[in-house]
Structure formats: structure tokens, C-alpha cells
Amino acid sequence: MVAINYNGKNYQLKEQQTVLDCLLENNESISYFCKSGLCQSCTMAIEHGNIPLKSQFGLSEAEKMQSHFLPCLSKPTQDIFIKKCNESKKKYACIVQEKIILAAGVIILKIKHPLNYQFFPGQYVNIKKPSGEIRCYSIASLQSEKCEIELHIKYYENGKLTSWLYNEIQIGDTLFISEALGQCFYSKEARVRKLLLIGVGTGLAPLIGIARHALSENHLSEIHIVQGGLNIQSLYANPLLIDLSLNNKNFKVHTCILQDADNPERTKDIHSYVEEHFSDLTNWEVYICGGDDFVKKTQELVFLSGADGANIHSDIFVVSS
Questions:
Q1: Domain range enclosing 114
Q2: Hey, which of 104, 124, 140, 199 would disulfide with 203, CB 3.0 to 4.6 Å?
Q3: What is the pLDDT of residues 15-72, one digit of tens each?
Q4: SS (H, E, C) 111-130
Q5: Among 163, 181, 199, where does a domain finish?
Q6: CATH number for the domain including 264?
Q7: 3-state DSSP helix/strand/coil percent for the chain, to nearest 5?
């Protein structure tokens, strides 16, 4: 069996077990949230041994050079010696500028970031609660002179961070965020391609950011966004998307809902709709945001419809238990 040495203690790694799960099983106190490499809150460093390349996915080149890795993704095949990182990731103080609570149980939070803060719309940030909990939220806004970041946050009654943001955080309060993370954003190389953006729930937040970015760059081709929800009330971003479509001739909104008591014929499954209306995605750029199962199923669907794997970008949302 593979052994992990941490804090002078040796632990045996079970077959197909990650380093993070092994440490947690042995009651080590490790910061973590998503267990999928997105939030990067569990980042550690290796002192001796080989780390699979997959466990450094999403880290900066500087972090890789310092032998940082993500234990939640790491399943080493040889013994390793690991430690906590010497330096924590930089945090940025932001001031809450606006807080809008929508009927669909979504909070739109606008926060003012420091002047030197850089991001691409569609990336995500980690917000850290004073008690230590960390959650990831995607950016729906453009980089602008206002130095403002717009986040769309689904409220969960028992959510440790969402209940705090919903009930306690007020305009003028300070929030601490990480640097912008993630690879799901618009690039100028996609400017001549048709864009297809597919999302459900607050998975629409990064897609709205990507659409805004593309439109601000005078995207030359069509932009289609397919939004899905349980019913019409769950489509919190519908007014915003309609406004974008009215002001941009190349932007089209497609809506799929599973329940419609007033008009049952209007109900559409989002995957069936995409398969029917976007059957040939050759040379398209595709962006997919939502839960793990939704993203994986949609990735397979668009790939089979002709989208190049290099042109399929995704952002998986993780809901805390």
C-alpha cells in the first residue's frame, strides 16, 4: 500500500482513495470544500515523491514550481511526504455595494474590488466566512471602471455561507475573496465562431458574464444561450437575458422548463432541446455550467453533436452538504 507522511505521521492510502480523504479519515484538520479541485482550498505542498499531473490542474505555474498540489485530486502510486503550504493564497478585501434578493431564492451581490484586481467574466472566486468556511461563486459582470464584481448566489436555508450572506451581510460590509480562478471564459480566438451557452440555476451567472464579455468585444457571430429550470418561476435571470436579446441582434435566448401547468405543451427537457436544435456543433464554441451530472451529460451530448473537445468549456457547481 502507498504511504502518506504528514506532520511526522504515516498513513496508509486505500485503493482509489485520495490523499485528502485519507487525511480526513485519520482526523487531520484540513481546510476543504468541493473535493473536486475547483475551490483549491485544500492546496498542499509535496516534500518528497511524485505527484500525478492531474492533481495540479488549475494551479498557477508559480504554485506548480513550488510543488503545490490538490490532495482532493491526488491518488499517488508511490509513497509521498507532504506538508501544508507555507503561504496561504492571497485574499482581497471587497466592499458590498448592492444586495438584491430575488423571489427565486437567488441573491445578486455586487461587491467593489481593489483597483489592481483582475478577472475574466465567467471565472469564479472563493468567499471565506470569518469562521473558516469557503464557497465558490461565479462572476457575471464585466471588468469595468466601477471595480465591481457581480455574483449570483442560490440561497440554501442550511447553507453555511448562503444563510450568512442572505441574513447577515449588509451593504458596506467587507468580504474577503480569492484571486479569480477557472478556465471557463470567453477568448478572442472564439470571436468568429458561433457560441452556445447551456446552463441551469445559478449556472447562468458565468454564462451571463461570458455573454456580456463576448458582446462587449463585438462578437461577430451568433450567441445562443439555453436556460433550463423546473418551472418559469425558477428562471431568475430571464428578465436580464431578455434585455440582452432586445439590445443585441445576434443574441438569442432559448428556454426549457420541466413543469408548466398553464401550457403543458411548452415543457421541454433541456438535453432533448439541445439535441434537436443544435444537432451540428462543428466549429462552435460551447460553454456549460451547472451541477456535476448535468455538466457531464451535456458535455457528452455536444461532443457527439460535433463540438471539438478543445472548444467545450465547463464550470461544475458543487452544493455543500
A1: 91-181
A2: 199
A3: 999 999 999 999 998 878 788 887 888 889 998 888 878 898 888 777 888 888 999 9
A4: EECCCCCCCCCCCEEEEECC
A5: 181
A6: 3.40.50.80
A7: 25, 30, 45
Question: C-alpha angle with apex 164: 159 to 168, nearest 5 degrees?
Answer: 155
Query: Can you tell me the mean pLDDT for 242-250?
Result: 96
Residues 219/248, Cβ–Cβ less than 8 Å: no
Beta strand spans in the chain (E): 2-6, 9-13, 44-48, 68-69, 80-84, 92-101, 106-112, 124-128, 134-138, 148-154, 174-177, 195-200, 223-229, 251-257, 285-291, 312-317
| Whether 80 contacts 48, CB under 8 Å | yes
Report which DSSP code applies to 33. Answer: S
**Residue carrying the nine cell digits 436555508:** 157
pLDDT at 239: 93
C-alpha grid cell, residue 115? 483597483
How far CA 201 is from CA of 59, 236, 265, 269, 272, in Å, comes to: 27, 8, 22, 14, 18
Q: Are residues 250 and 301 in the same domain?
A: yes
The torsion defined by the Cα of 223, 229, 234 and 240, in degrees rounded to 10, comes to 0
Q: What is the pLDDT of residues 102-124, one digit of tens each?
A: 978 899 999 999 998 999 999 99
Domain count of the fold of the chain:
3
In this structure, the answer to whether residues 104 and 143 fall within a common structural domain is yes
CB 219 within 8 A of CB 250: yes
Kindly report the CATH number assigned to the domain that includes residue 132: 2.40.30.10
d(CA 121, CA 210): 6
Segment 127-156, tens digit of pLDDT = 988 887 888 899 999 998 889 999 999 998
DSSP 266: G
pTM: 0.81
Whether the predicted pLDDT of 10 surpasses 50: yes
- Partners of 3 in beta bridges: 12
Q: Are residues 146 and 123 part of one domain?
A: yes
Task: For 205-227, write each residue's pLDDT tens digit.
Answer: 999 999 999 999 999 999 999 99
